[in-house]
Amino acid sequence: MNEPIARLRTLRSVAVRTPRAGDAAEFYREVWGLTEVESDTGVSWLRGTGEEHHILEVRQAAQNALGKIAFSVGSPREVDEAAKRLAGRGIPLVAEPGRLDQAGHGYGLRFADPEGRLIEISCDVEAVTPQDPGGLPAVPRKLAHVVLNTVDIDAAAEFYTGVLGMRVSDWSEHQMVFLRCNRDHHVIAFNSAAWTSVNHMAYEMPSIDHFMRGIGRLRHHGLTPLWGPGRHGPGNNTFSYFADPAGLVCEYTSEVQQVEEDAWLCRVWRRVPELSDLWGTAGPPSKDVRAHMAGVPDPGRWWEC
Ligand SMILES: [Fe+2]
């Protein structure tokens, strides 16, 4: 049996491509609470208060699309081994193992998933000083999860478990699947949809107090949640969804359920209001938030264009 290509440690970052990169980067910097670590023409790298060099890359492009999703592995040897295992599975590399040409560098490789999304695995990325606020500014610590719209949820789940070694934490009927690579209940989820696109990106606040104060800060900037605040059933995490200037959906979350690997049993959640929103404060998602989460069709494989 084919082994997964690597043991993923964490979700590092997400990259988005958008015609409104400047406005989006300004929003994440000035309103959302991230800090710019580096920028270049048409591209900005932003960090949270945690250990990761950057958790978001925003890059100028012709249309809204996913740039890439980056995961960490433990060592260069694991990156090299992953390259061999990908070759063994007939999955071509987009970038061979080597020094990554981006902010924070690191040693990594890149390849595409079945819907043309770019996946990066890396190690030895440059350190930054943790700035965990310990009760002060209500700013995100890390990227909590990325939800992806997929045209084939079973193929997506198969690839991310079989090839990337992720585990299924829960299903929401046959509509969504929640995948983990560490104790966090999910770092990736797939949502069955009419086309491939980014559904939303979630940023973890250190506590529910930071979460609520973050929502308050956005209110002072004139932004009210598209959906939330509430608490999801699968993952038991708090949620509050907003749209950024590019039209992409971003979420503040906190208190994501921690999984004990050997004891966890996957469940299937019915899609009823009392399970989607345990607090009963958010109500069902509106047409508006659903339209933002659907986004525009992402053809993927942007690096081949
Ligand atoms: Fe979410």
Automatic annotation (TrEMBL):
One of its GO terms (molecular function) is metal ion binding. This is Extradiol ring-cleavage dioxygenase. Residues 10-124, 142-255 form the VOC domain. The keyword Metal-binding applies. Keywords: Dioxygenase, Metal-binding, Oxidoreductase. PROSITE patterns: VOC. Transmembrane segments: none annotated. InterPro entries: Glyas_Bleomycin-R_OHBP_Dase, Glyas_Fos-R_dOase_dom, MMCE/EMCE_epimerase, VOC_core. Coiled coil: none annotated. It comes from Bailinhaonella thermotolerans. One of its GO terms (biological process) is L-methylmalonyl-CoA metabolic process. The keyword ATP-binding does not apply.
